[in-house]
Structures are given as C-alpha cells and as structure tokens.
Amino acid sequence: MGPGTGRGLRRPLAVAVAAIALLTACTTGEKPDDPAAPEPGTLRVLASSELSDMTPVLDRVEKDTGIKVRPTYMGTLDAVELLAKGTADGRYDALWLSSNDYLRLRPDAAKKVVSETPVMSSPVAIGVKTATVLKLGWQPDDVTWSRIEQAVQDGKLTYGMTDPARSNSGFSTLVSVASALSGAQSALTDADVTKATPRLKEFFQGQKLTSGSSGWLATAYERRGNVDALLNYESVLKGIPGLTVIRPRDGVVTADYPLSSLAATKAATREDVRRLTEALRTPEIQREISERTHRRPVVASVAPAAGLDTDRRRELPFPGSRSVADGLLDSYENELRRPSTTVYVLDTSGSMKGDRLERLKTALTGLTSDFREREEVTLMPFGSAVKSVRTHVVDPADPRTGLDAIRRDTEALTAQGDTAIYTSLEAAYEHLSVDRDTFSSIVLMTDGENTTGEDAEHFERFYTGLRSTFQDIPVFPILFGDSDKSELEHIAELTGGRLFDAQQGSLDGAFEEIRGYQ
User: How far apart are CA 354 and CA 283, in angstroms?
Assistant: First the structure.
C-alpha cells in the first residue's frame, strides 16, 4: 500500500516521536541530553550503531591527531529523525552514519549537514551457512536475489535481518531486494513496489529472525542455530564464523559511511572534523579499517583486506523520493513481514502507585501508534500474581478498534500487591503458541525485584524444560525504578533477550527501542 493512505502516514510520525524519546536511551559515555560543550579536541559524534567496532581505530587516530571522538550510537533512521527535528543541534558536532541516502530524502535533515566525506564502504550481502550453500548447489559468484527467493519459496532457506524502520542495514537490504525483484532499471518507484509485492511477500516468508541491531542479530543467530542465513552488510557477515558471504549478482546497495560536519557547529569544530576525516582516509588507517572491520577502503591506492573479493556488482539506486521510501517501509511493516505476537508482562504491584504507574500508562498509550497491522498484543499486568490477560489484534480492516481497546486496558491499570516476576513470566510462556507463523516475544517491565511466587531457580528449570521452539522466544526486560539489574540481566541472558535501561533513559524510549526486536 502506498504512502497516500492513512496507514502510510502513521509510521513516519511514530518513528519521529520514538527518535526523540530514544535520545535519552542511547549508548554513550555521557548523558546524551547534556548540551554542554565538550573539552577542546573532543568531537561529539552521532553515529550508526555498527560503528562501535571502530573504537580501536579511533583510539589510534586520537594518538596521532589529538582528536578524541565521543560517540553516541543510534539506528541510522532514528538519527536522521533527530537531525530533522533539530534535537541534535548543539548536542553533536558531527554525524557518522552508514549512509546519508535516507537523510538526503529529508530536506529538513539535509540542511543540517554542510559537508560529507566517505570513509569506507560495505555492500549489502547474504551470509549463508556453508553446508546450506552446498545443499542448494550454489556457486557464490552466480547467486541472484531471484535464486534466493526461489530457495525461500521451496522451503530450503530461512534467514534473519534487522528492522528496516530502524536500521540502515535492514532498509538497504529491503531496497536491494525490492529493486532486484521488481526489475527496476532506475530508482524505485511506487509502481515498482506494487509490481514486486507478490514476490516480496514470498521472499519475506523466509525471515525467521528480526532485530533492532546487527550485534544482537548475530548473537541470536548463533544461539538458535536453526536459521540458514543472515542479510546484512558484508562487513558484519564476515565477522560471523561458518558463513559463506555472497553479494547477489543482480545488484546491492552499498553503505559508504560518510563523516559529516553539522551546520550548527563553529568553524574550529568543522576543522577538527576535516582533520579527523583526513586521518581516517590515510592509507595506513584505511588498511587497518579494512583488516579490523572487513569494510572496504575508499582510497583507490589501498587494496581491500584478504577475503574481500574485488569483483564488481551492480550498484542499485536508492529510492528517489521520501514518499517511495516511506511507502516501502510501510508495506514491509504492515504487509510483507511476518506479524508480531507480544506479551507485555507489566509490574503493577503496590510500589508502582503514583508517578510510576502514570509513566507506564503514558508510555504504553504512546506506543499504540507504532503497533503494526496484523499484530497481536497481550497485556498481562501482575502483582502478587497475574491480574488479567487481555489480548487484542490490530485488524487491517479496522485497526482503530484494537488500538482503542489496548488504550482502555492501559488506562484501567491499577497498582497493588507484591511482585511475582517469575510466576508471571511462566504464565506468559504458557499463553504463547509457537504454532503460529509470527515473531513472538515477551516484554517484562518491573520497578522492583521478585518478592513472591516462584523464584529464579524454578523459572530456570521451567525455561530449560520448554520445547526448543518456545526457548526461541526471548524476554526483553526493562530496568525501571528500583528493579534489580542482575536479576533482569539473568532473565535476558537465559532467554536470549536483551536488557533495556529506563533508569538512565526514558520508559517511552525503552518500549520504543524494543520495537526493532519484535
């Protein structure tokens, strides 16, 4: 469905709201909402999440130049939204995203950038288990997106990829697949997306794993062991053992990681950005980047690291307008991908009375604008035991009814009782069905530690006794109020989830960030 529908307009707005909330939940060495100027020689850089692997290179550049990079990591599309809203003005000195292609579709964001210089590159690729490649009879140099689609259709290939609405690797993959399967000879149009939709639906039936970050995706892939492949940047895939990395012959989208100066900065700061860029593009540093991170050098005199083939592939163009990009995202979220099934296990014990409960209600109510069509949402509030189990589906024919019901149930939440975390988690697993073709997960929000009901040892025995398909359902705990970090970390590690911190950041931001994993 195209961007002219009411549904197509909802998604970009939700992302914009989420990006602002996420500003207080990013990974950084300082409070990310602190506008104070840094010490001289330090650059505050808003960077794509996967650039965390550049730390050793940046440490070396600091020794050579005296310029220290203080990064805040965020999904590329979320970072663009912050820039467009002006929220990044005065808080960051430079932008370092995997690509500025989406930024260029946003005039309100593009005007914030005054220069950009590519630092390295990495194309979209598919990493397939070597045994699966042999079973399929593939020659890596001859594989096309159509052959990948056929393998999915034949039930011979499953894969994981990041969420295109938050991650540029996911969005670049979506553009690559849509361009190739539509036969587009230039930048994607709405007509191309419509033409390719039946084949795209078949293609995304093979997606068994989703994620808001490349790092968690790789960890989940290795933990589960029952997914055949990953779609991501070549540089990410090269770091995962046991994969044959294939760049489809009919074309890919490539990230070029431009380091960009921001218009709101002073001339001296822009000079530091220029010096940093220059240092990163020296032959010696370009070689180190390629060897450490499996990215390709952008300086012609430097050869790619061993294992990076030099055969050319067609570069697929990025969508030419924001309406097409947003329409493609909307189609993916609401039509193409598997729907989501999520149980929200919500602490409404006595300690949640007052401001904490109101914050929970505000966060959940705001989150409803981001629920996808076909999504099933279960609210499971608990105190001394589970208080109620209310399940709602966002029906494409009438999404408002399901969303309004979630809001009413949220508003009706009351706080009383003790805190039965593990008993409630067991009830959540018992509620879920693995026979349905969905992305299933459990979100746990608690402001305290377990005080009644089953204990951690009982839950661990319960979890390890589940069928493997149930063990693939992760729990995403949210650290909030006085909750016990070690207790929640153990739950996340045991179930293959990830801990989200609403003590340092916002509860709204934590709920929203989890969306990339559902």
Answer: 59
pTM equals 0.88
Residue-wise burial string across 175-205, b where 16 or more C-beta atoms lie within 10 A, e elsewhere: bbbbbbbbebeeebbbebbebbbebbeebbb
Distance CA 304, CA 295 (A): 8
**In a shared domain, residues 228 and 281:** no
For residue 484, the one-letter residue type is D
CATH number of the domain to which 422 belongs: 3.40.50.410
With a cut of 70, list the residues of the chain below it in pLDDT.
Answer: 1-38
CA distances from 246 to 140, 142, 447 (A): 6, 9, 45
- Judged by DSSP in three states, 121 sits in strand
Confidence (pLDDT) at 130: 96
3-state secondary structure of 148: helix
- In a 13 Å sphere around the CA of 422, the CA atoms on its Cβ side amount to 19
In 473-517, beta strands by DSSP E? 475-479, 500-501
Look up the domain containing 228 and give its range. Answer: 122-254+313-332
Helix (H, G, I), strand (E, B) or coil at 19: helix
